[in-house]
Structures are given as structure tokens and as C-alpha cells.
């Protein structure tokens, strides 16, 4: 298969289009139920830049990384393992192929640092949401809010 060709994984058609996911109504609904208005906005816009590919023949849709057979969690795990084993060239090649780039625009050490920083930020955000939910729950019981 050439690099420019993209086939649907279900019907093998090349009649496909790619576009950004945008606002996700389903995730927004779940976020609204769990965390109210702020949860709706955060959940709805979380993956808005993700590229989704739509088959115009069978209507199947998938994430562009599905074509690589790898989700982001798997990519990060493999990248971190390669980096920790000091296999920097292989880590860089994995990063390039996963992100569909022609070449590496930054040092592999900078990429590793940035990804670890993003992981810490995500963890802090998740902890913040959990604490907020816990405070709301306690407030409902303590103040008997109906």
C-alpha cells in the first residue's frame, strides 16, 4: 500500500475522508451528568482535534491511529519503554510514524519530557475533578441540599 492510500478496515474502500472530530455530544452528555456544565464542556471538547476518518461507502469511522494498529496509550507505553532502554533512534522512529511526520522536529529527550509533563498535568486534572466531586458529595450530605 502506498503512503497516500487509505483503505476502510471494514469494506476496504478507498472512498474515505478525514476531518477533526470536533465537539462530542455523547461525551458532553456524560460529563454533564457527572459534573454539570463544566463537565459537559471539558468532556465535549476533550478530543476535538483528533482526526477521524469516515468511509463514505459503509459509513464506518475510525481514529487515524487505528490504521497503525495502535492507540495513544499503547504508543506512550512503547515510547517510554524504548526511551528507558536508551533506544533513542527507535523511540524517535515510533514517534515519527505514530504522528505521521516526515521527520523529527524536536529532540527525542524534549519529546519525552513534554509527554511526561502532559501525563502529570492530566493526573492533576483528574485528581482535581475527583476532589471537586467529593466536595460536592459531602456538601449534599452535610447541608442536606435537595
Question: How would you describe this structure to a colleague?
Answer:
The chain has 2 domains: 1-69, no CATH class; 70-146. Helix content is 55%, strand content 9%. The protein has 4 helices and 3 strands; from the N terminus they run E-H-E-E-H-H-H. It has a 3-stranded antiparallel β-sheet, with no helix packed on it. A hairpin with a 5-residue loop joins strand 2 (51-55) and strand 3 (61-63). The longest helix has 35 residues, at 108-142. The model has no long low-confidence stretch (mean pLDDT 77).
Count of helix runs = 4
**Overall helicity:** 40-55%
> Which strand order does the major sheet show?
1-2-3
State the domain count: 2
Strand percentage: 5-15%
State the low-pLDDT regions, or none.
Answer: none
Radius of gyration: 20 Å
The major sheet is characterized as: 3 strands, antiparallel
Kindly state the number of beta strands.
3
Keyword list:
single chain, 146 residues, mainly alpha, 55% helix, 9% strand, flat
What is the element layout, followed by pairings?
Blueprint: E1 16-20, H1 25-45, E2 51-55, E3 61-63, H2 72-84, H3 88-98, H4 108-142
Antiparallel strand pairs: 1-2, 2-3
What's the gist of this structure?
The chain contains 4 helices and 3 strands.
Amino acid at each position: 500500500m502506498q503512503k497516500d492510500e487509505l483503505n476502510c478496515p471494514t469494506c476496504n474502500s478507498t472512498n474515505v475522508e478525514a476531518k477533526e472530530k470536533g465537539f462530542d455530544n455523547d461525551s458532553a452528555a456524560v460529563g454533564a451528568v457527572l459534573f454539570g456544565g463544566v463537565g459537559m464542556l471539558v468532556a465535549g471538547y476533550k478530543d476535538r482535534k483528533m482526526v477521524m476518518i469516515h468511509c463514505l461507502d459503509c459509513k464506518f469511522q475510525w481514529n487515524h491511529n487505528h490504521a497503525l494498529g495502535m492507540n495513544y496509550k499503547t504508543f506512550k507505553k512503547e515510547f517510554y519503554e524504548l526511551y528507558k532502554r536508551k533506544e533513542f533512534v527507535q523511540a524517535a522512529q515510533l514517534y515519527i510514524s505514530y504522528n505521521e511526520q516526515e521527520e523529527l522536529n524536536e529532540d527525542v529527550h524534549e519529546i519525552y519530557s513534554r509527554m511526561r509533563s502532559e501525563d502529570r498535568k492530566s493526573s492533576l486534572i483528574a485528581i482535581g475533578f475527583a476532589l471537586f466531586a467529593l466536595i460536592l458529595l459531602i456538601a449534599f450530605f452535610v447541608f442536606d441540599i435537595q
